[in-house]
Structures are given as C-alpha cells and as structure tokens.
Amino acid sequence: MDMKKVLAAVCAAASLALAACSDAPEPAADPPPSSGSVTTSASPASPAPDPGGTGETPQTLRFTATTVDGKTFDAAALAGKPAVLWFWAAWCPRCRGDAAEIRDLQQQYAGKAGVVGVAGLGSGAAAMKDFVADYRLDGFPQLADDAGKVWQRFEVPSQHYYVILDSSGKVAHSGPLTVAQLKQKVDGLL
Q: Where is the secretion signal located (predicted)?
C-alpha cells in the first residue's frame, strides 16, 4: 500500500479519536440510524437461555469478553433487562469527567438495568486498571477490549460513546450522550 495513503488513514483515524474526546457540547438529538446492523458472531446450534426468562439470549448479547481484572464476562447475563455499554478510553478527558457519574448511575440502576464499561482504543492493561481504581469502577464489569472486538460488534467509532439495549436486546440508542441524556433514555426503558 502507498505510504501516503497509510499516513492519510492514520491521520484521519487520529483526528476522529481526538475530536470525539473534545470538550465540545454533546448533540441534543439521537444520530440517524445506522444503515448496517450490529456485527454479530455466528449463532450457536442451540441458543443459550437468558437469565431474564424468555428462553433465548438475544444475538446482541451472545459474546464473552475478558474484564480488566482478568475474569470472563458473559454478556448473556444482561438479557431480560435494559443495559448500557459505556465505551471509554483511559486517556480520554471526557471519559474521566463522566466516570464518577456513570458509577453512581450503575448503583442507582442496580437490579433494574445492567451497566458495563468497555475500555479500549489503545488504553493498555495498566492504564485500564488504573482508570478503574482511580474512579472506583470495580463495582460493575469493565471489559478490557484493546483489540476492539466489542467496539466493532456494536459499530462504535470512538470513545465516550454509549450503546443502550432494551430488555429484548435491541439497540435503543447508539452514540454520545451527556449523563443526563443517558439517564433519561434508560428511565424510558424501565
């Protein structure tokens, strides 16, 4: 591949990542729906039962990942209730600014809605662990996704991004939000 094209692609990706982590105000409305669907893995021969009682785990929740503390997280545990996936990077100022409020939100919704942090974008294992410790985020799952597999699965382009799933596992929102907007959207699903 031509080095100029590679350099242009790297610069474009870096610009998008930095712009997403700016201190600019969040958009007031939902972004337009994506033309594509969420990337999912192949369905198992017999779907795993969901803990919510419907008998089947939604396709969006058929994945596992490793947490920042090295444990296995099975997304099927989120089935049957609304869930928030918070995509963050350890170096992101906005993510740092919202971390305590996300922790408080998770405590408020305990038992009613799931909240999962998804770290990535080159954060690195040590920085992820420090971020979780600094903001006391160890009370709910924090996925270590530097490879970006969960980010790709939900078509997340940058950090400080939320994917909200309704109780059936359908994507109810995908995009940046203020914490107040996030709370309003989750309240609407309860």
A: 1-19
Angle made by CA atoms 67, 70, 75, in degrees to the nearest 5? 35
The partner residues of 84 in beta bridges, in order of sequence, read 115, 164
Q: Containing H/E element for 129?
A: helix 125-134
Secondary structure of residue 171 in the 3-state scheme:
strand
Closest CA to 65 of 55, 78, 52, 56: 78
Could you tell me which CATH class the domain 50-189 is placed in? alpha beta
pLDDT digit string (tens) for 158-173? 989 999 999 999 999 9
Instruction: Match 């963050």 to its residue by tokens.
Output: 88
The pTM of the full predicted model, rounded to 2 decimals, is: 0.72
CA angle centred on 165, ends 162 and 166, rounded to 5°: 145
